[in-house]
Every structure is written in C-alpha cells, then in structure tokens.
Amino acid sequence: MRKLLVILLVGLSFLNLTFAQNIQSPNDFLGYEIGTQFSRHHQVVDYFKAVANTVPNEVKLEQYG
After folding, report:
1. What is the per-residue DSSP string for 1-19?
2. Measured between alpha carbons, how far is 43 from 21 in angstroms, rounded to an integer?
3. pLDDT at residue 15 in the model
4. Could you read off the pLDDT of 8-59 as tens digits, one per residue?
5. Is 23:56 a contact under the CB 8 Å cutoff?
6. DSSP 44
C-alpha cells in the first residue's frame, strides 16, 4: 500500500511538472527581461490572461475594483 502511494505521488508530481512547462515565461511573453524595461498595466494583465488560458484548472483570474 505504501509503495502504491509513493508511485502515485511521483506520477502526479511528474504530471504537474509537465503541465508547468507549457506556461510561457514573462520574459518570453513580453519580449524583454523583467526589470530592464517598464511593463505597462495592460501587458501584465495580458500575461496573466495567457497563463490562465494555458492552465485553466490551476489558475483563475479574478477581476475586482
């Protein structure tokens, strides 16, 4: 039983890493390294929308204010 649990946890961890690799980094999305240029509000929002669309089961974008 313990071996089965360990195998299951390792498998789920592997799947999580596989899905996380599909998310584009902010540097790739914006086209420059974070901190080297000013990022406008709409650029940041667009990045988080792209992340939420890539992994909708893991990220939920909430609008408030």
Report:
1. -HHHHHHHHHHHHHHHHHH
2. 21
3. 62
4. 666 666 666 555 568 899 999 999 999 999 999 999 999 999 999 998 888 8
5. no
6. H
Q: Where are the domains of the chain?
A: 24-65
Whole-prediction pTM value?
Answer: 0.65
Distances (CA, A) of 20 to 1, 32, 39, 47: 29, 21, 23, 15
> Which residue type occupies 48?
F
Q: What is the dihedral of CA 20, 26, 31, 36, to 10 degrees?
A: -140
Q: Is the Cβ–Cβ distance between 26 and 47 less than 8 Å?
A: yes
